[in-house]
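Journal club prep — side note

Before the paper discussion, L.F. wants everyone to see what a predicted structure for a comparable chain looks like in token form. Sequence:
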Amino acid sequence: MKSLRDPDCLLTEGLAAIRQQFKVPATFPPPVLEAAEAAARRSPSEHADRTAMPFVTLDPATSTDLDQAFTIEAAGSDLLLHYAIADVPWFVADGDALDTEAWLRGETMYLPDGKAGLYPPVLAEHAASLLPDGPRPCFLFTTRVAPDGAVRLEGVERALIRSRAKLAYDSVRAEDVAPQFDELARRIAAAENARGAARIDPPEQEVERDAAGHFTLRLRPLVQSEVQNAALSLATNLAVADALYAAGTGLFRVMAGPDARAVARLRYTAAAFGLSWPGAMPIEQFERSLDPAQPAAQAFMLAIRKAGDGASYVPYQPGVKPWHAAMAATYCHMTAPLRRLADRYVLRAAHAIANGQPVPLAVNEAFQRLPAVMAKADARASQIDRAVIDLAETATLAGREGETFAAVITDLGQNGARIQLCDAPVVARVDAHSVLPGGQVRVRLDSSDPIRRELHFTRVS
């Protein structure tokens, strides 16, 4: 899971069991590796030379599969975001071994001890990655960002770029990026607030061992550069989504807002963490009021992430406006083609419509098939994420059997009451009668089994 780090490999045995349970591939079939080696030698021949433009990348320090690079320039009161996206379609052809394997995987699968990539490393972490060790082919998107944060796609071309630097979130300096970087991120955030968007940036969870030898979960909020960098991707995705919808094509990311039951459960969770959520305040407004530096707010942001039914993909349908509730906008995915299958096809469609060309038949056909394939991949990724969280939660409570904990009832069901521990980001179930959601209880931990990822509590009061 990308939001859970295990830098000291404290969960090795449990993670190995998760990989086996969910059949996470350890490598690629030999024909796919051979195809990747051959594709990596393919020289770009349909790309404009944009190597003089001052592109940089900004990612976690250890990342090598770099999908995006950027530079920004002023255009009167507007800003022009030049956003380079790895040209994966240049290396992967419809129906070849790489394409066939990607359709089986759907997306890169992340675990704290490593990932199972969508494409072999020779492409994803070398030839197709926008690394600063030579010219790289890309789709170059130019998006105009107005003072109020409104975005419009100005153009798309295939280009060669040369990244000036591989920057890291935790060490980037203001002088390392375009001087308009902060202002562009501010404009996008202002537009989100004006739309009533509910997008949140949950903290990372890190597993550590304390002085007593127990596992602990430490929450680390995203640093400012991560949030600002996400604004660049958001701006481009929004602009592309609008252009695709206007052209009557595309694949969109949609999501409904949390239903009344989920919101009620979140209110009880907020109470468990001691957060004051006024009764008349909408969830979107409450989310924006949270201080990501506060541990209780960090834990609640993770609870919000787990509360929804999740997003899905839909192809263009005449007369139907695709909508993503968290973004409060029409939205698409296309900025991470090294990690998501669907992005490769949205890139091709956006390039075609921006240049007055018909969208390739293979792309339009893919838009009809991709929702089911991506739903399966997303479901698998969610199951892995849930298993990793369960592993971390059980590991943090291992050795504390017999202790009692304060908890709040967040929901009731056939399998018992769902509880949120008040002093830890742990959700579990307990057999409890004559209780209502929002009620406070004390529970005793009877057992914690990290290998089976099971917690058993008994209500004591």
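L.F.'s comment for the group: The mean pLDDT is 91. Keep this in mind when we get to the figures.
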